[in-house]
């Protein structure tokens, strides 16, 4: 699917990506839902992948709230840069280790709905005009939302398909 360039495409890509992800996760057997993936990686099971997505939604929400209020959010996170993203993702993984799969599923459902709400609250121009909001730097709000939703859902689907192939 081509990268979204308007609100309808963004909303459709996010909804479609989420549907693909949840449909694929639903094909996991009860044992697979709790199993460790058959390959070495940071995200080792279904819970880890879903929690990772939720964490990025929550970061996007924080950036959005702070930025739209006129602040300058710490992107990607306080104490992290894009160069130290592996460390941030490791911290996300560590935070998820006490989470149950059912909690991860519920949290992702809620955070996805939240992202869809942000998308729906804006016009094409607000979503895709670069530099419209100072906090988005040289890019657009839509680019951040694509990264937090459809692009990240594509990553998760690939990871889950890879896990299924190893079992």
Explain what the structure shows.
The protein is mostly helical and about 170 residues long. It has eight helices and no strands. The longest helix is centred in the middle third of the chain and has 23 residues, at about 45-70. The chain is globular and about 45 Å long. The two termini are about 30 Å apart. The model has no long low-confidence stretch (mean pLDDT about 95).
Please tell me how large the radius of gyration is: 16 Å
Task: Give a short account of the largest sheet.
Answer: none
Count of helices? 8
Mean of the pLDDT scores?
Answer: 97
- Estimate the global geometry from the Cα principal axes: globular
Beta-strand share of residues: under 5%
Low-pLDDT windows of residues: none
The percentage helix is 55-70%
Derived structural class? mainly alpha
Strand-helix topology:
Layout: H1 7-26, H2 30-34, H3 46-68, H4 85-96, H5 101-120, H6 124-128, H7 141-148, H8 150-166
Helix pairs in contact: 1-5, 1-8, 3-4, 3-5, 3-8, 7-8
What's this entry about, in short?
The protein is mainly α and 167 residues long. The protein is built from eight helices and no strands.
Distinctive features:
167 residues; 66% helix; 8 helices; mainly alpha
